[in-house]
């Protein structure tokens, strides 16, 4: 089972950056990031049920999925340092992957948590998870931006894409973060100043998720700020500071 795709192979890059897509996202969301992060080898995670894994069943539990990703990323073969960038649901998945890796005795150089509430603020509500139907998903997609309302009237889009978007929304709604021992890796939390779903305080609460260095950043834009303004400079600055 292949969990990640290499955006552009760079075997001589000193470090890798692994990107975790949002709910309903695919590895294609990060296909332009290799040009913006030209000193790194960029990888993107592919969740089941989309892109090249379209024929597979969607995951319904976030933590077991994250542990599978951790096992794949920890497999022998590439010992270069790795940083994780996760957006929205992807930030929570990346956090759980780091947790699994640290429990196994390894870890990552940095975690970038973008457009997401801190894990301990996620309460895990089965009733809310079950309530994500097609109509509520459509309303939320429009609210978050990045989805044209006309797409929701396209039956091909609804039949092909909405099932895995809905599966991701329900999986995230059922996730319970709880207060657990903090990670060791540095964390940078990033949120758009106009994000309708994540406040600056909820993003800054990632401070409790690490005993390492922490930074909370607010950038122009809404939930999908990174569509128009990918935070390449922020990523490079943080990784450069760690090396110096």
Offer a quick outline of the entry.
The protein is α/β, with parallel strands linked by helices. It is 35% helix and 15% strand. It has one domain (4-123, 176-243): Alpha/Beta hydrolase fold, catalytic domain (Rossmann fold).
SSE blueprint:
Elements: E1 4-6, E2 16-20, H1 33-36, E3 41-45, H2 62-73, E4 82-87, H3 89-103, E5 110-114, H4 126-130, H5 134-144, H6 155-160, H7 162-173, E6 187-192, H8 200-204, E7 214-219, H9 225-228, H10 232-243
Parallel strand pairs: 2-3, 2-4, 4-5, 5-6, 6-7
Antiparallel strand pairs: 1-3
Helix pairs in contact: 2-3
Commentary on this structure:
There is one protein chain. The protein is α/β, with parallel strands linked by helices and 244 residues long. The protein has helices at residues 33-36, 62-73, 89-103, 126-130, 134-144, 155-160, 162-173, 200-204, 225-228, 232-243, and strands at 4-6, 16-20, 41-45, 82-87, 110-114, 187-192, 214-219. It has one domain: 3-Layer(aba) Sandwich (Rossmann fold). It contains ten helices and seven strands. It has a seven-stranded mixed beta sheet, with helices on both faces.
């Amino acid at each position: 089972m292949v969990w990640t795709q290499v955006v552009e192979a760079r075997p001589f890059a000193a470090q890798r950056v692994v990107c975790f897509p949002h709910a309903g996202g695919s590895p294609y969301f990060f296909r332009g990031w290799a040009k913006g992060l030209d000193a790194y080898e960029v990888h993107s995670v592919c969740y089941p049920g989309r892109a090249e894994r379209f024929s597979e069943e969607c995951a319904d539990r976030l933590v077991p999925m994250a542990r599978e990703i951790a096992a794949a990323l920890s497999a022998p073969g590439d010992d270069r340092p790795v940083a994780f960038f996760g957006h929205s649901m992807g930030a929570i998945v990346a956090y759980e992957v780091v947790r699994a890796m640290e429990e196994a005795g390894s870890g990552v150089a940095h975690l970038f948590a973008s457009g997401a509430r801190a894990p301990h603020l996620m309460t895990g509500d089965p009733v809310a998870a079950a309530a994500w139907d097609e109509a509520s998903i459509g309303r939320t997609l429009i609210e978050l931006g990045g989805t044209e309302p006309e797409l929701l009237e396209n039956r091909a889009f609804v039949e092909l894409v909405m099932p895995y978007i809905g599966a991701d929304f329900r999986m995230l709604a059922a996730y319970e973060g709880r207060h657990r021992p903090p990670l060791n890796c540095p964390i940078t939390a990033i949120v758009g100043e106009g994000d309708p779903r994540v406040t600056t305080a909820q993003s800054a609460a990632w401070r409790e998720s690490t005993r390492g260095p922490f930074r909370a950043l607010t950038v122009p834009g809404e939930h999908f700020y990174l569509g128009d303004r990918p935070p390449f400079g922020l990523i490079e600055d943080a990784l450069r500071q760690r090396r110096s």
